[in-house]
Predict the structure.
Amino acid sequence: MRHVIVAANWKMNTTPADAGELAATIGARTREPDVVRVICPPFVCLAAVRDGLAGPDVVAADGSGVAVGAQNVHHEQAGAFTGETSAAMLAGLATWVIVGHSERRRDAGETDELIGRKLRAARAAGLRTILCVGEQLDEREAGRAEAVVDAQVRGCLDGADLAALGVEDGLPWLTIAYEPVWAIGTGRTARGADAAAMAVRIRATLAALGMPGGGDGVPVLYGGSVTSSSIGEFLAEPDIDGALVGGASLKPDEMAGIVARAGLTAAARRGPADSGSPAGPAPLAAKTT
Ligand code: 13P
């Protein structure tokens, strides 16, 4: 059974002075035991958010807390890369990382091949990774959305050397966020059915790449103008496993509503027989081979 995940992408917002308190407030208001919660602040706020989330008010009934994620990672381990941050540097600060966000593809020129190298670096460091994919508006209007996303998934994962990533194990550290570019920050969302169709296509692509179980174990999130009002349409789709939230994730009221709705879906998926098992994913070990 796939976990239900709500990940907050704070983008270039908050400062070390205010991020910890905001994270603590959001953490305390989202204590849904069945939902995996992740906050991804700017690099300079990672320590403040980690510390802000350390209080008992943030821990859910099953003992799970809020995980911290970075918004990017460099593909090399160390070296002359001014301004960059390696996966190893995130130790003790973050257990998740976002790679391939469309804003980085747009502003930093990240290619699928480069994102694949980031995936490999994140995997080697034992980070849970959210890989972002999504089409432009003209691509959707031309009926090419699924082909574009299929090519992105193949480009990122092929470039990362699937055998080294351990594809035969089903990539339990991988989550994919489908974020149509035209829905990001626009107030316009995809339709739940279209997002679900994309999730099915993504899993078919994973299966074609050799993932066991038809890619069924990989969570697929929707991202793009998600709010407490719109989240229900996506979580009503069995193929969608949560959301990657941008603007609304800076608002405690919004996050409370989004995670509460996610909790309903998660509880329904678990069913009464499973009520004793923890929601959070098992810890990941760094991959040394
Ligand atoms: P918005 O929710 O602000 O549209 O951003 C979505 C996003 O890019 C999350 O990564």
User: Anything to note?
Assistant: The chain has one domain: 4-270. The domain at 4-270 is CATH 3.20.20.70 (TIM Barrel). Strands lie at 4-9, 35-40, 66-70, 96-99, 128-133, 174-178, 220-223, 242-245. Residues 41 and 222 are 19 Å apart (CA to CA).
